[in-house]
Amino acid sequence: MTAERPRRDWRDTVAEAADLALLGLVVAVAALPVLTLAPAVAAASAALHDRSVTGSWPPARTSLARFARGLPAGAAVSAVALAVAALLAADLLALATGRVPGRWPALAVTAVVVAALLGYAGLVAVAVGRTEGRGWRSAARHVTGTCLHRPGVWAAAAGTCALATVLTALVTPVAVPILGGYALAALHAVDGRRLSRAAGPAEVPAPLRPEAS
User: Fold this and answer.
1) Number of domains in the chain
2) Do the Cβ atoms of 117 and 84 come closer than 8 Å?
3) What is the pLDDT of residues 39-76, one digit of tens each?
4) How far apart are CA 191 and CA 204, in angstroms?
5) In angstroms, what CA-CA distances link 103 with 87, 100, 169?
6) 34 secondary structure, DSSP code
């Protein structure tokens, strides 16, 4: 006979919620220099991966080491992500203010594109977390294959990011960093369901391998 796992009660739920809130706050602080956004998210994603595999959070020293190792490549990823975000924000602003023709249809299409890109970026962050916060290029290739083979996962990730964006506009600014921790955990849950439901090697891209970037 195998020993039954202890049942979770409300204290476990509260503790996990507090941990995720703290994770979001730490990521927000680490991302203050702006170009450190990607390595901060990668280190947080790796911590969430460790939590799902081992049942406990990694030591702070481990997360700091991952953050430091990911700075060179992460800064470049942050710069690209911020540039794309700025272009999309300018496009949405121009459409919302009616400065370009086809206001509402174009705005709806652009919003869907933004949600899809956010979902893709979120899945890349999850994939990077599985390789200790490194390997952005291989993670991007891996997620591209996932989106092509399992578009439902992409749609679920896009919906998660869209909901987080809407909540960001509704909650008080102080609570916005907390949403980051919950959103990243939700993306890990979405990807975890994909892995648990994978029916065979033909549906799942090749496993990730850590690399320098």
Assistant:
1) 1
2) yes
3) 999 999 999 999 999 989 999 999 999 999 999 999 99
4) 12
5) 17, 7, 21
6) S
Which residues touch 56 (CB under 8 Å, ≥6 apart)?
50
Burial class from Cβ neighbours inside 10 Å (0-12, 13-18, 19+) for residue 76 reads middle
Q: What separation in angstroms does the CA of 62 have from each of 57, 77, 208?
A: 10, 22, 20
Structure tokens given for 148: 């092509």
Indicate whether 213 belongs to any domain: no
Answer yes or no: is 10 within a domain.
no
**For residue 165, what are the domain limits?**
18-203
CA distance 3 to 26: 36
139-184: per-residue pLDDT in tens? 999 999 999 999 999 999 999 999 999 999 898 888 899 999 999 9
